Amino acid sequence: MDGETYDYVVVGAGSAGCVLANRLSENGRHRVAVIEGGGNDSWIWFHIPVGYLFAIGNPRSDWMFKTEEEAGLNGRSLAYPRGKVIGGCSAINAMVYMRGQAADYDRWRQMGLSGWGWDDVLPLFKKQEDHFRGANELHGAGGEWKVDEPRTSWEILDAFIEASEEAGIPRTGDFNSGNNEGCGYFHVNQKNGRRWSAARGFLKPALSRTNLTLISNALADRLVFDGRRATGVVIRQKGRERTITAAKSVIVSSGAVATPALLERSGIGDAEHVKALGVTLLHHLPGVGENLQDHLQMRMIFKLSGVKTMNTEYQSIAKRIGMGLNYALFRRGPLTMAPSQLGAFTRSSSAFETPNIQYHIQPLSLDKFGDPLHTFDAFTVSVCNLRPVSRGSIHARSADPEAAPKIAPNYLSAAEDRQVAVDAIKVSRKIVGSPALQKYRPEEFLPGAHVAADDDLAKAAGDIGTTIFHPVGTAKMGTDSDPMAVTDDQLRVRGIEGLRIVDASVMPAITSGNTNSPTMMIAEKASAMILTDA
How far apart are CA 249 and CA 233, in angstroms? Predict the structure, then answer.
């Protein structure tokens, strides 16, 4: 079956790839193939929101990557989940609809990246959106990307909103106005209590088009070139190699983890690293795999009294049955829960002009994702540094596409990040110490109230810190003067023809919040660029 030719070949049917598949095939004039390493999303836990508990850490749905042992995390290695299914991470993520701050995109524009300012990208967010409040100056209606309000609430979360107000953080009903400061319930990518993934919104409705082909359970091995022009991709499927040819362009949308590894296996990247893989160097691009940024969350846990949390509710078989019935009959209740229902954005200190830390508040606690819930009532106050200074890397470990890449986030390596971590823990304690929460007698379980000195708090941050699953930046876009830029502002790979990168790896700097919807906005913009070129 070699020799299959399409106009556009999209490598990866994740959040970005699903948008590309839809938009590039929409006018019917272009033949589009989308290659996905995972399978379809027929498993029930891809659709019931609480299913993330079963999907993360499951080889059926997760690529099961791990980081290197991290010095900033006191020698720990972390699981690094990535979605192994159509829809990619949007099929297993937190479902939080978040754009980031207007200043994030204006910063990109100030870096010399024309067309990437807030005023440029807001219409793209609105075009995709089908917001439960309808269309207005900030939100869209009728788009493919469903945005709904949460369908469950908890007394302890309502109390946290009150405590945040007492600590100087205002209430907000919308984190997506350009300024996300405040505390409130997240809006979620769901419809009627079911997860709404990129596959469900963008890919599946387009698959009825005769000019769109999905090739699933196919591992991208390497790109194919004619000189310095990308002409296709070699895939492995059912024990066989196949070459899928692109007449116009290859678009790599494999994500911030897999994209740099694919480039390196194809001969594009830092010369020494590519040669060390035993791969012939095609083009020296030293930025490939560098500039990794991620949100490190510090998961503080507080024991509680006199209020129900998921910890003890879940211990009761009768209550579990009730949760199931509530979901089956009304699509409401705990089974509709995203991993975090409540959020807050604020400053760790007065040194920051816009909020630089984000909270994900959960009416439950556990040692780590995949472990059982604790048997005592508690809630988790998770806080992350939105704009870390630390930079890590992701590189291919070998030329074998089945070998997991080497992921080294380099968390807390920058002194500025350690200071933000210390200050964030102090802000968290201030909120939990506010009057609104005192009737529940919160008792700090992790890291523990006895940890007080700044040096001890910095070490504790390494003990309780874990990824919040937002890797970006490993093939960043930049100007001609940036030697580490992998793409230009049109997302074209520098020095190579017929090759674009469209996923979270192109972000030059991480957005101030959850990164899934910004990645889909990038794909929306890229689709328009590609079609304009055509």
Answer: 11
